[in-house]
Automatic annotation (TrEMBL):
It comes from the Bacteria. The chain crosses the membrane at residues 33-57, 64-81, 101-120. Keywords: Membrane, Transmembrane, Transmembrane helix. It comes from Nocardia puris. This is DoxX-like protein.
Amino acid sequence: MHTVAALALGGFFTATGLGHFLAAPYFRSLVPAWIPAPGAVVAASGIAEIAVAGSLFVPQTRVAGGWAAVVLIGGFLVVWLDALRRVSSGAERFADRPLGMAAVLAANAGYLLWAGYIAVG
């Protein structure tokens, strides 16, 4: 089960890492205004996700990759916690509404648990 979890998270990180380049405007829109150079941040985080994915695919680096995923996902929570300030029941995007933000935060908690499961071997 551990191997399946690692390979699935690796696939997820590969897809989202590539998404940083294929859908860069969307990912830039997630970067809080107080973080400089959103384009560079999106590119760097996309590269980091792809690198972490690579480490999850290799059995010898899987545990380290799990810990790297925990750190990366934890860093992404900054984006969502910042977005929490703008939550409004009348928001256009679902993720900017209370229920949407609750879903986003729950999903990220799940990602942290998923990565943590891999990290502890």
